TrEMBL record:
Protein name: Flagellar basal-body rod protein FlgC
Coiled coil stretches, renumbered: none
Domain Flagellar basal-body/hook protein C-terminal span(s) in chain numbering: 83-128
Statement: the UniProt record of this protein carries the keyword Ion transport: no
Keywords, ordered alphabetically: Bacterial flagellum, Cell projection, Cilium, Flagellum
Location(s) in or outside the cell: Bacterial flagellum basal body
Quaternary structure (record): The basal body constitutes a major portion of the flagellar organelle and consists of four rings (L,P,S, and M) mounted on a central rod. The rod consists of about 26 subunits of FlgG in the distal portion, and FlgB, FlgC and FlgF are thought to build up the proximal portion of the rod with about 6 subunits each.
Listed NCBIfam families: FlgC
Sequence similarity: Belongs to the flagella basal body rod proteins family.
Gene transcribed to yield this protein: flgC
Pfam families documented for this protein: Flg_bbr_C
Amino acid sequence: MSIFDAIGIAGTGVTVNRKWMDAVSDNLANINTAVRTADPAYEAKYVVAAEAADGKGTQVAGIVTGGPEGRLVYDPAHPLADAQGYVKYPDIDMSTQMTSLIMAQRAYQANLSVIDRSKEAYQAALQLGKA
């Protein structure tokens, strides 16, 4: 494996983890989006990662969404409440989303560190024989 292979593989990881963070950000942004009980709730997004087709790195295999069922909350004062006083919110757990966000952020940083270390190794190799 060359230094450029390491940079390429880490680059695929950066891309996947960025998309993972984007999905989590969308979920967190819509966690309090209320709708009428007859309407579909915001569907949470989950990134599915898989090995790249060429076997070097990873790629986004798809994005899976949660169900539109949501969770019903009794809030008769809400302007979207039905006759029984219920409003529908997305079925998104804040602690799970925050855990996913931290994991994606750490993986993103780890891949960036691989790229930085590879660049340093390449630059050090270029300096061999110059001194």
